[in-house]
Amino acid sequence: MNLRSSGSLVLSKAIQGFISFKSAEGLSDRTVDSYDRLLQKWLEQVGEREIRKITAAEITGYLSWLRTEYTPHRFSGKNEPLSPKTLRNVWVTLCSFFAWAARELQIANVMKDVPAPKFKVAPVDPFNQADVQAMLKVCLYSKEVQPGNRKGFVMRLPYGHRDQAIILVLVDTGLRAMELCSLKVGDVDLKTGKVEVKHGASGGAKGGKGRTVYLGKAVRRAVWRHLAEREDGDDGPAPLFASKDNRPFNPSSLRQLIQGIAERASVKKAYPHRFRHTFAITYLRSGGDVFTLQSLLGHNSLDMVRRYALIADLDVEKAHRKASPADNWHL
Predict the structure, then answer these.
(1) Are 135 and 274 members of one domain?
(2) pTM of the model
């Protein structure tokens, strides 16, 4: 079938062609799956029909329905309305789909007349040193138990060293949740601190782009201590961090683990990505430069790094006095 002469193509076939195109572009499986899931949900609501008959008003109505009437079903059991960010993701997906359709099927791009849902970027709120220290402290021991009239006692937690290592790796590298969950024992060199975040879906890197990050000495010791307790601690292909049933963590289970630790430590609003913010801002405040930070975080542009720089409240005047070429060269 010649797609360029197929403006009468039905939605399901068009979506199939779009997903195949995005897969061929080399996007990560996660990104392609997200496109497919959001478009299939849209198709389920609007029904099968020719793509050229879709109007901007109908898409605007669909976005309105998602915002006001749709009740999502989540694994957690929570049924809050979709967040503004999720609605924005739906709009972005439809924009990408119709831009492709306009090129391949020679139809009008109706998304040009669909306004983007308003989306306020959430403020970046890093952990402070006391937050991280409190979470590390509660990893090793349970809360004190008071058995009647007997003296209270605490119990050592079986996965304390693992949990401490997870927190320290997150705060010292800025890894995304999926990147940390995808790490293997062989990806970490405890002598040098080098950590290889593999490209492609298996490495968890966003956009499929791998990179190298580093662990400081304290974190290397924590990871070594964790692996020393495991029978497969020297097995390169084994997951660096595994749950109690010896399965690799996934972003959901990692989030639950962090939230449980934070609750015991009385730290609010704890989630894996907040460690990424903490790493970035602390890195800049400690003298790191924005270009190296961009590489360590795996960002394609400096946009997010600029936000971190503003929050870090960098003393530009002081930095220039230190790095001035004319002064350093005694010109």
Answers:
(1) yes
(2) 0.72
